[in-house]
Design goal:
The structure holds 2 protein chains of 2 kinds. By secondary structure, chain A is mainly alpha-helical. Chain A is built from 13 helices and no strands. Chain A is globular, with a radius of gyration of 24 Å. The chains are: A mainly alpha, B mainly alpha.
C-alpha cells in the first residue's frame, strides 16, 4: 500500500498534539537537572556536562520530608485500593449473584456515589473526623477514599462477575461448598483482571487528590505527596531548582507506573466502563 | 451469555439461597454499605441539614430554615461573590464543552481511522497528562507561562506571534480563560478515549454501506458516525459538567483560595472553601459552607437530571 498524503497530514496533526501534550512535562523534567543559570539561559536545551546539577533535589530532601510524604501517599493509596477491591467485590458479588428484595434499590443507592461528589459533604466529614479524633491521620483519608471509590468499583466488578460462567459456582454448590468459600476461593481469584481496571480508576484520583488531605490531614507529617508539593512550592517559590526538582519527584512515580500499566487503563476505558 | 443463563435455569431449585435473603448476603453487603453510608451518604445528608442552621460565636446552633440560602442569594456581601463564582463556573464549563470535548472528538476521529500506524502510542501519550495531579499540572503551567522564565514568550516569538504574549494568568481579563485552557489541556484525554471507544464499536459494514451508497467522508461522519456516538457525547457532557462544577484543586494551586486577580478565577469550589474555612478577615462558617455545598449539590443534581430525563431518553441507543 502506498502512503497517501491524507495519512501524512493525520500523523502530523497527531504528532503536533502529542508534542503539545508532553512538551511542558518534558521541559520540567529536563530543567530539573540544570543549573539555575542554564534554566534561564537555555530552557529548551538538554542538560549537558556543564549544566548538569542535582542541587534542586538536594534542597528538596534537605528542606522537606519528601520521603515521608511519598510513604504517606503510598500507604493511603494501597490500603484504600485493597479495601475498595475486597469490600467492593463482596458487595458486587452479593448484588449480582443473589436475587433478594431490595436488590435493585440497593444498586441504585450505591450508584448515587458515582454522580454526586463526596466532596460536597466535607463540612460534615470534617466534623465527624474531629469527633472521632481522626484529624491529621491517614485513617481519615482512607475511610473517605474507600467510601468515594466503592460505587464505581462495585459497578465495574459487578459487570465482570456477571461474565463468569454460572456452572462453576453451581457445581461448587452441589458439592456443598459454603457461599463464603465460593466467593473467596473461586470468584475472587477469577476477577483479578478486573482488579487492574478498578485499580487504575481508584488509585489515580486518590494519589492525586488535594482536597481531602488539605482539609483532613494538613499537618503533623501526615501530608500526602500532592499536598506536600503544594506546601513546599508555596514556601520555596523563588528557588527554581527546588521547585522543578519537587515537581519532577512528584511526576516520576506516576509516569513510570502509567507507562507500565497504560494498557490496562486503555482497555478499561475503551471496554466497558461507560456503555 | 444468554445460553449460559438459560442452561442454569433448571438448577435453581438446587440453590434455594438465591431466592430468599439469608445471612451471608448481609455479610457480603455489610462492609460496603456501612462505609459508603457512613462516610458518603450520611455526610451529604448532614450537610443539607446543617445548611438550615446558623451558628454563633459560642458554637451554639439554631434552626433558621432557608435563611442561609436567602443570605447567599440576596445579601450584598454574599450574593455578588456567589453569582460571580457561578458565572465563572459556567464559563469554565462552556470552555471545556467546546474546546476540550471538541479537540477530544477530533483526536478520536483521527485515531479511529482504519489501519492507523502507531495509534496506541498516540493514545497512550496524549492521555498521559490526565494521570498527573491537577496541582502538579497547575504548577507546571504556572512556570511555563511565567514571564520571568520566558518559555511561552520565546516560543510565541519563534512562531511570529510574540506580540500576543502577556501575563495571562495575572490579568483579570484573561486569567479565567487561561486557567480553563490549562484544565482542558490536562483532561482532553478523557473525551478522546470515551469517544474513540464508541467509534470503534460502530460496525464497519455500516460505514461501508454508506460509502457504497455514495456518501463522502464528511457525510459519513455527519449522518452515520455522529448520530451513533451521540449517547457517548451525552455521557461525556455530564461527566464534564459534574467535574467542572466540583473543580477546586487547579485554581487553588495556581491562584490560591482567593482565586485572584480580584476573584476573576473564583469558581464554586474555591468559594465553598473560603466560606467554610474563612480567609483574611472573614471567619469561616461551617453552616454557610454547608449552604454553599448544598447549592452546589442542587446545581449538580439539576445538571444530572437534565441529562437523565432530557437528553438520555431522547437519544436512541443502538446495539449491534
Amino acid at each position: 500500500m502506498t502512503i497517501r498524503p491524507g495519512r501524512i497530514a493525520v500523523h502530523i496533526a497527531l504528532i503536533l498534539y502529542t508534542i503539545l501534550a508532553l512538551g511542558p512535562i518534558f521541559l520540567i523534567l529536563i530543567n530539573a537537572f540544570k543549573t539555575r543559570r542554564a534554566i534561564f539561559a537555555d530552557p529548551l536545551g538538554l542538560p549537558n556536562g556543564q549544566t548538569w546539577t542535582t542541587i534542586g533535589f538536594d534542597r528538596v530532601f534537605a528542606n522537606s520530608d519528601f520521603g515521608l510524604y511519598f510513604f504517606n501517599s503510598l500507604t493511603v493509596t494501597v490500603v484504600s485500593l485493597v479495601l475498595i477491591v475486597l469490600i467492593g467485590a463482596m458487595a458486587a458479588w452479593a448484588l449480582t449473584e443473589y436475587r433478594f428484595r431490595g436488590n435493585t434499590l440497593l444498586s441504585l443507592y450505591l450508584a448515587i456515589g458515582i454522580m454526586v461528589p463526596i466532596r460536597l459533604g466535607s463540612v460534615s466529614i470534617l466534623r465527624m473526623m474531629v469527633e472521632l479524633n481522626l484529624v491529621n491521620t491517614l485513617t481519615a483519608l482512607i475511610l473517605v477514599y474507600v467510601a468515594q471509590g466503592l460505587p464505581l468499583a462495585i459497578l465495574i466488578l459487578g459487570e465482570f462477575i456477571q461474565q463468569i460462567p454460572k456452572d462453576l459456582r453451581d457445581a461448587a454448590r452441589c458439592d456443598g461448598v459454603s457461599e463464603y468459600r465460593i466467593f473467596f476461593s473461586i470468584i475472587l481469584p477469577l476477577i483479578s483482571p478486573a482488579i487492574a481496571t478498578v485499580a487504575v480508576f481508584t488509585m489515580v484520583p486518590v494519589w492525586n487528590d488535594l482536597w481531602f488531605p488539605l482539609i483532613l490531614a494538613p499537618g503533623d507529617g501526615k501530608q500526602t505527596i500532592t499536598l506536600g508539593v503544594q506546601q513546599f512550592i508555596g514556601q520555596y517559590v523563588t528557588d527554581w531548582n527546588a521547585v522543578l526538582a519537587s515537581l519532577t519527584l512528584a511526576i516520576a512515580p506516576v509516569l513510570v507506573l502509567y507507562l507500565l500499566f497504560s494498557r490496562y487503563l486503555v482497555r478499561g476505558l475503551t471496554a466497558g466502563a461507560v456503555k | 451469555m444468554t445460553d449460559i443463563t438459560a442452561s442454569s435455569v433448571p438448577v435453581t431449585d438446587v440453590v434455594p439461597t438465591r431466592s430468599r435473603f439469608s445471612i451471608h448476603i448481609a455479610v457480603f453487603l455489610a462492609p460496603a454499605l456501612a462505609i459508603y453510608t457512613l462516610f458518603s451518604i450520611y455526610p451529604l445528608i448532614d450537610t443539607i441539614r446543617l445548611s438550615l442552621y446558623a451558628g454563633d460565636e459560642t458554637g451554639a446552633r439554631s434552626f433558621v430554615g432557608l435563611q442561609n440560602f436567602y443570605t447567599l442569594l440576596t445579601d450584598p456581601n454574599w450574593s455578588g461573590q456567589f453569582w460571580n463564582a457561578f458565572s465563572n463556573n459556567l464559563i469554565f464549563f462552556a470552555i471545556h464543552m467546546v474546546v476540550q470535548n471538541g479537540i477530544g472528538l477530533g483526536l478520536a476521529m483521527l485515531l479511529s481511522l482504519p489501519r492507523l500506524t502507531g495509534g496506541s502510542v498516540y493514545r497512550t501519550l496524549i492521555f498521559l497528562p490526565t494521570m498527573l495531579s491537577v496541582v502538579i499540572i497547575g504548577f507546571i503551567w504556572q512556570l511555563m507561562l511565567n514571564p520571568l522564565w520566558g518559555i511561552a514568550p520565546s516560543l510565541l516569538k519563534a512562531a511570529g506571534l510574540g506580540s500576543l504574549f502577556g501575563p495571562w494568568l495575572g490579568q483579570e481579563s484573561t486569567a479565567l480563560l487561561t486557567v480553563s485552557l490549562i484544565s482542558v489541556w490536562q483532561f482532553v484525554g478523557i473525551p478522546m478515549m470515551l469517544i474513540y471507544a464508541a467509534l470503534l464499536n460502530i460496525p464497519d459494514d455500516l460505514l461501508d454501506a454508506a460509502t457504497v451508497d455514495g456518501a463522502g467522508p464528511f457525510s459519513v461522519f455527519w449522518f452515520v458516525r455522529l448520530p451513533l456516538i451521540l449517547p457517548t457525547l451525552g455521557v461525556v457532557s455530564v461527566l464534564t459538567f459534574v467535574a467542572n462544577f466540583n473543580a477546586f484543586d487547579l485554581i487553588y494551586a495556581i491562584k490560591g483560595a482567593l482565586a485572584g486577580p480580584n476573584f476573576s478565577t473564583d469558581i464554586l469550589g474555591t468559594f465553598f472553601y473560603r466560606t467554610f474555612f474563612g480567609f483574611q478577615l472573614q471567619v469561616g462558617s461551617p453552616t454557610m459552607g454547608a449552604a454553599v455545598a448544598t447549592a452546589m449539590l442542587i446545581i449538580i443534581l439539576i445538571g444530572v437530571l437534565i441529562y437523565l430525563f432530557g437528553v438520555q431518553r431522547k437519544l436512541q441507543r443502538h446495539s449491534f
